[in-house]
Amino acid sequence: MRVTTASPISSSSRRTAPAATLKSYLVFSFWAALYILPLIRLYLVGTDEGTLDYGAVRVFHGQVFARDFFEVMGPGTFYWLAGFFKLFGVSFLATRICLFISSIGSALLLYFLSRRVCKTHRMLPAIILASTIFPGLWPATSHHIDSTFFALLSVACIVLWSDRRGNILLFSAGALAGITTTFLQPKGLFVFLGFVVWLTILSRRRMASMSSLGVIAFGYLSVVGLAVLYFWSKGALASLVFANFTWPSQHYGTVNSVHYAHGLFSNYFKVWYINEPGFRWTLALAVFIIIPFLFVTLLPGLLLAVGARFRWDLENPDILLFWLCGIGIWLSELHRMDIPRLVFGSPLLIILCIYFLTQYKSAIASLSLQTLAMSGLCLASFNVICSTLAANTIPTRVGAVRMLKEAPVIAYLDQHVAPGEEIFAYPYCPRYYFLTSTINPTPYSILVYNYNTPSQFQDVVRVLELRKVRYVLWDSDFAQGTADAFPGANKPPPGGLVIEPYLESHYKLVQIVGGIRIMERNPVTTLNSTIRPR
To answer: Are 211 and 288 members of one domain?
Structure first.
């Protein structure tokens, strides 16, 4: 019998492999942080960040989601961010520490999962995601960002379990999928179902036991059960079901129905391309840096095409897992089919597409990968440069923030409204509650016709009348831009207005600042307190 011994070279390579791996992660973390840190100083006005930041403030002060305030998002982000407020105080810095952890964590997890299957171009999926994620829903506090972080973390746990077979990893994967469910219900549920199907297939291949299904189900149901028990103990379970299931099924799609890849050209290409003499060169720039967005838009079809030659490699357990969970994450973001949500739905599918492209030994595949990498890097650099040059530093009561536009309303409120005083922002500018440390006396951060119900409008009127709220911010610019933000939000027919007649009869216009009407309550009113829509 011939006995072979390990050569000094192979032994050395095994010893240096962990060091080389650690070095690669450190290098990746450095570049990821270098990209993330300048951008997360921004406070983007056109996102849901104001709702989530102020909702977390409500939780910090003891209010219970769905019982004391109404939002369509899952409760996860409100409680996750409230934890950072408890550690660091209610401040803009606390929101950015939270955002940095979710962002750098997602980047590292994407890199880890990419290294799992890709022999080359392992950083490319992270580059594509990082370049296309700005400025749709990031950088901002977002249930999309947080749910993606926990979803990728759960996938990483089950990937590690496939190597080490420890039940704690399997339980953790299920528990993290349960946590993801509290942020964005479909995402956590679809990831969990992906795990169940994957483990069932492995058990039939005799690569896993059926008992593994019980372990992961126990982890998932434990977290979901604890969340249900918490809201039940607070008397908020029925309200939670209404806010996160009943109401969205009846109202969300009414105003959020958009065509596939909505905003691809209007929010990106047309912004980059300046069709003026002396700026025609921006056409070439716009065409080149929109490539990553086109890649994400066409990703489902591309993935089927490039994987067909290899029969989509479904025999590979890791690839099968990425298929199942990747499709689940993608479907979970299709409740509104615009570009930002397509980006958040695509992380695992991006890895799969890059993996299949690296399997081809052709010049076209190599050129495609190089073009994607260069375009993604250029887009990322463009994001940092433009946001840095365009941003303005705005002092607020929660710390200095950087915005792409001036914020004169904040300065006005700081001068005329005391911290802790009640104001009402209509129809959707909840950022002012957080940035000025003021209080929304109503349960609603948004009031849009055909989105909110007539009874919710009447609830707000009753609260304004009962509390005699002194100042109201009426964002007329939002009303003008509703067609793009909420395509289905049409004005009610004549006689259907609720808030507007009340504001016009009980408040006077003090000033118009930055497109926002600042309304002050009339000192004496002779009108009947019972308000009816005209």
So the answer is: yes
Of all helices (H) and strands (E), which one includes residue 365? Answer: helix 363-390
- Residues 312, 415 share a domain: no
User: How many Cα atoms are found within 13 Å in the side-chain-facing hemisphere of 153?
Assistant: 21
| Cβ–Cβ < 8 Å for 33, 43 | no
Is 43 a domain residue?
yes
CA distances (Å), 119 to each of 351, 352, 357, in order?
12, 12, 11
Contact 390, 135 (CB under 8 A): no
Q: CB under 8 Å to 227, separation ≥6 — which residues?
A: 75, 178, 182
Structure confidence by residue, pLDDT tens digits, 124-153: 999 999 999 998 889 999 999 999 999 999
Say how far apart CA 110 and CA 129 lie, in whole Å.
Answer: 9
* 529 in a structural domain: no
**What DSSP element (H or E) covers 136?**
none
Rounded to an integer, the average pLDDT of 57-72 is 96
Among 353, 387, 421, the domain-final residue is: 387
Please tell me whether residues 345 and 458 are part of one structural domain.
Answer: no
Q: For residue 455, what are its two tokens?
A: 């009874």
Question: How many domains does the chain contain in total?
Answer: 2
User: 329: how many CB neighbours lie within 10 A of its CB?
Assistant: 28
Sign (positive or negative) of CA dihedral 350, 351, 353, 354? positive
**Same structural domain, 351 and 482:** no
Q: β-strands 471-475, 401-403: how paired? A: unpaired
How many whole angstroms separate alpha carbon 67 and alpha carbon 75? 11
CA 305/CA 174 separation, integer angstroms: 32
Inside any domain, residue 4: no
List Cβ neighbours of 242 (8 Å cut-off, separation of 6 or more): 66
Amino acid code (one letter) for 393: T
Cβ proximity of 271 and 386 under 8 Å:
no
Give pLDDT tens digits for 370-405: 999 999 999 999 999 988 888 889 999 999 999 988
526 falls within a domain: no
Q: Are 262 and 333 in contact (CB under 8 A)?
A: no
Note the pTM of the prediction, 2 decimals.
Answer: 0.91
What percentage of the chain's residues is helix, strand, coil (to nearest 5)?
65, 5, 30
Full domain range(s) for residue 151: 24-387
Per-residue pLDDT tens digits for 179-196: 999 999 999 999 999 999
Token pair listed for 172: 């953790």
> What long-range pairs does 366-369 form, CB within 8 A, spacing at least 24?
369/121, 369/124
Mean pLDDT of 230-254: 91
**Residues 100, 115: Cα–Cα separation, whole Å:** 22
CB 170 within 8 A of CB 210: no
